[in-house]
Amino acid sequence: MKRNSDGFGLVGIFVIVVVLVVIGFVGYGVYKNYHKTDLDKVATSKIGSGITSNLYAGWDMAALKYEKISFRYPPSWVLDNGSLAYQNITTSGQQEACVYPGEDGATLTASDGSQIQLFTPGNQDGCVNESSSGQVASTPITTLGKKLFISFVYMADPYSGSPQASEVNKACISTSASSYDPPESQNIFEDTVDKGLKPENLFCFITPPDVNNESIGESLSVMEQSSDFTTAKLVFESMMY
Prior knowledge:
By secondary structure, the protein is of the alpha+beta class. The chain has two domains: 9-45; 54-238, no CATH class. Helices cover 24% and strands 29% of the residues. The chain has four helices and nine strands; from the N terminus they run H-E-E-E-H-E-E-E-E-E-E-H-H. It has a seven-stranded antiparallel sheet with strand order 3-4-5-9-8-7-6, covered by helices on one side. Strands 1-2 form a two-stranded antiparallel ribbon. A hairpin with a 4-residue loop joins strand 1 (60-64) and strand 2 (69-73). The longest helix is centred in the N-terminal third of the chain and has 36 residues, at 10-45. The protein is elongated. The termini are far apart.
């Protein structure tokens, strides 16, 4: 067999070339797989920023007309999404909103009766109704493009009216960690002229009602571990202006 001046045969050179090619392919495969995994982590972490993660696969999208908030929700929850345009209620009756340019009221209902209520402003009767519920605990959440909190709100005793701090029946978006303080509206106002007057928005998860259609309280740990609350949290996280 012929050898070159360094004593290597053609077979030896061929083996070295093959080894180098194999190493190159293996290295490229490792790099590609690592880079793909890194991108997947980035994509799934950007919930609520316009990039849909796998957690929202198959979910529907809706929007609040006047507050201009979009949100995602699972198709297994029934959506009732309504809006009322502003008119002067002293001249047109009580079927119109008394906030400008109008109010939204979206309700998502699960099969067991749990609800997610997205009211802008926070009322159900066409007039501003500031919240005064008490808080048991809170947990941080990123929603509406900012750092806010989920406030676990206690229910009142139906006979005495005093709070039952051991039970909660609502979990609502709050601007404060220490007390329940609903966020102000960004696009709805209490006055058609003075747009510095902003009503509160109520974004809440509510436990299922009993046979008398009264909300049932439950312990904080039970609510946090429920699948309905997990869904509500994802809906809140998907909300964005």
